[in-house]
Specification:
The chain is an alpha+beta fold. It is about 30% helix and about 15% strand. The strands form 2 sheets. It has an 8-stranded mixed beta sheet. Strands 6-11-8-9 form a 4-stranded antiparallel beta sheet. Helix 1 packs across helix 6. It starts with 10 loop residues before the first strand and ends with a helix.
């Protein structure tokens, strides 16, 4: 078992996979069960490929007209398009479930663009991004094959499953909600420079997430010694930028598939702790790896020690979530007008189910 240091996010060297696959797999399992976050180096992804994604992000966010950017707005059902957080009003509601009260300023400028795989969604793209979409799709496949699938193979083996079990549920050529998201946080100046949190604490809805950081820090991770409701004044860990390494974290879907054995850890975006970063814009590139759309949101048979979790009632359909597609659409739609209506109906249904259970027990 890996000795877990609660003050340092662990680092795994993929160069060891060829000579000690099982050892690396067990280390990743231990880290995923405690930290839920790990750095990985020697992935085989060239730095030039990563830099190119940030060049594309800079052109789109800084040199494209507001009208063109807004021409393909993000939608919760499709989980694709341009998202201007200044225009969204449900920031607080989306994060209340974690027991804390981090609410970003409504005028704190941050924006993103989410790309879906071309085989999953016929996505409309603004001209600036349409001409580079082949590069985007190629980078998505690279991140999938060189990082995500290898992490999934390690988790399969360490959980007592065949090495290809989780990879088969994540076929890049099958429909899924997998996305690549480019994010832009303009530099803070003047009074805004005191803003402590720019994206409140949350967990990802994925199976695994791969983060490519750029030049400015900002990501904070809740360390494993802190559990339960988030309390005011907690000291979270600033995730450093390690040259040549990517940062991987476990998502909520994996907690369902593993019966809770793998941990989806809270994280947030805050001001960089480094003096040299102050006033500078921050870019990040995130690969959100989701399972095939028809994958059942349930603990995998054969996993020992896990506990089956009951999926929620969807705020989109009003029915119990069954598949990963249902799950992602539910999670991304929370806070919308339709979702609020559905959630009220779901709460009444759960109350009715609880009442029936009590009556039956009596």
């Amino acid at each position: 078992m890996v000795l877990i240091d609660p003050t340092t996010i662990p680092l795994i060297d993929f160069a060891r996979l060829e000579t000690d696959f099982e050892g690396v797999a067990n280390e990743i399992k231990d880290i995923a069960a405690t930290w839920g976050f790990l750095y990985i180096k020697n992935t085989g992804i060239q730095q030039e490929q990563i830099d190119r994604m940030f060049e594309i992000a800079d052109v789109f966010f800084n040199k494209t007209s507001p009208e063109e950017k807004a021409s393909t707005p993000w939608g919760s059902i499709e989980n694709a398009g341009y998202d201007d957080r200044r225009a969204r009003k449900q920031e607080k509601r989306n994060y209340e479930e974690y027991g804390q009260n981090e609410v970003t300023k409504k005028d704190d400028p941050k924006e993103s663009f989410a790309f879906r795989k071309t085989n999953s969604y016929d996505q409309p793209l603004p001209p600036t991004l349409k001409k580079v979409n082949n590069e985007i799709q190629g980078f998505m496949r690279t991140a999938h094959e060189k990082v995500a699938l290898k992490v999934l193979a390690c988790l399969s083996v360490s959980l007592g499953l065949p090495a290809d079990y989780f990879p088969k549920l994540h076929n890049f050529d099958s429909p899924s909600f997998t996305t690549l998201r480019l994010l832009h946080y303009p530099g803070l100046t003047g009074d805004d420079a005191a803003t402590p949190v720019r994206l409140p604490a949350h967990t990802d809805h994925t199976v695994v997430t791969v983060l490519f950081q750029h030049k400015v820090m900002g990501l904070q991770v809740r360390p494993p010694n802190l559990t339960g409701e988030v309390l005011e004044g907690e000291q979270w860990l600033d995730a450093p930028i390690i040259p040549g390494a990517v940062l991987v974290n476990i998502g909520e879907t994996m907690t369902f598939l593993s019966g809770g054995l793998m941990k989806s850890t809270l994280h947030r975006v805050a001001r960089s702790p480094r003096a040299e970063d102050q006033g500078k814009e921050r870019f990040s590139c995130v690969y959100f790896c989701h399972a095939n759309e028809d994958t059942k949101l349930a603990m995998v048979e054969g996993i020992q020690g896990g506990v089956k979790k009951t999926p929620p009632i969807s705020c989109v359909t009003g029915k119990r979530v069954e598949t990963v597609k249902d799950w992602i659409q539910h999670r991304h739609s929370r806070g919308t007008a339709l979702a609020l209506e559905r959630e009220e109906a779901a709460a009444k249904q759960l109350q009715a189910e609880a009442g029936l259970a009590i009556t039956a027990a009596a």
